[in-house]
Amino acid sequence: MDDVKLHKMKTVIEIHMELLDESKREDCELNRKQFLEICIEQFSYILETEKKNIIKLNKLQLNIDNEDIMNHMTEKQHMFIQKMMERNKFLLEMWKRKEWFHKLKENWKFQEKYYNITQIQSNNVENFKTEIKNIILEKQKIIWKKWVAKNVMHIEESNNESLLKDFITHNENIYFQDKKTINNIKNQNNNINENSLKKYTEKKLLTMIWINIHMLVLDELKKEEIQESKIILLDKLIDRLKNKNDTKTNQPIIHIIQEKKENILQYKINHINIYQGENENINFKWINEEYKNCNILPEEIDTYDMTVKNPILDIQTDILLKNWENMQIRWIDDYIHIFFML
């Protein structure tokens, strides 16, 4: 095969990799909001409980004035904490390279694989079918909701001071509590207890941190899935070419595909699943305990991969393979047309 054809083949491979990458990213963006809403919903229970505790501790009556004060307080705090999180995106980048984050990510991966479609109530699945929804997506959302809800309970029962301290350490010039708002509320109602408001602010900040951490878990695994999809596509191309009669002609193309695959694998080594050893104070026992369970029932996990995950990727890669073959046919037609024009 001449260099021009090889270059064209390489271009086609690159195009299909980009198409796969783009389609996966679009799906992730479309679905991310739904998973974020579930995450916020589960963590919001913590804040509502804490807010009720503030009212109870300060013996406030739920009249209009006091309710306005509480709403004003929570709105101001929300804006303040949002600004804090925006300023500290680099912390998420730092945390995702920690061992505890890697374990949390593996915990979700295990949870997603462990709960297969048969474990979801059949009536729910039937409802999804009648509503013509994506069954796999709905299944993932149910699993995500259960997993996040379980983690919320663990977080409530665990000591989060180390995580909060890590966040505050990088914000020494900004005191996380909105003092002005607190003072305004205290002036309007002397019964407001500053300690309870401080506790509520800490809780809200931690909630925002944990929501962002959970969404980062989802984002990082989606990146891995994209790379995995590319590898599956390239493996299928290699197998398809090896099964053809003209193996000698296809060998240069196979070599190009293998090079591309090696580049993707190297990217995974350099950018994915990189984490530091646990050499800091942040250490969550509940994450470690869940992580130990990740090695349980490997046979069932493999069954999930074969029956659910792989067919989804197979369908996507088969579509791209069809495009590949159609493009090759067009090249042959163009070549024949040029030949007869000579």
TrEMBL record:
Residues covered by the Schizont-infected cell agglutination C-terminal domain: 9-47
Highest taxon above the source species: Eukaryota
Name of the protein this chain belongs to: Schizont-infected cell agglutination C-terminal domain-containing protein
Organism: Plasmodium falciparum Tanzania (2000708)
Organism ancestry: Eukaryota, Sar, Alveolata, Apicomplexa, Aconoidasida
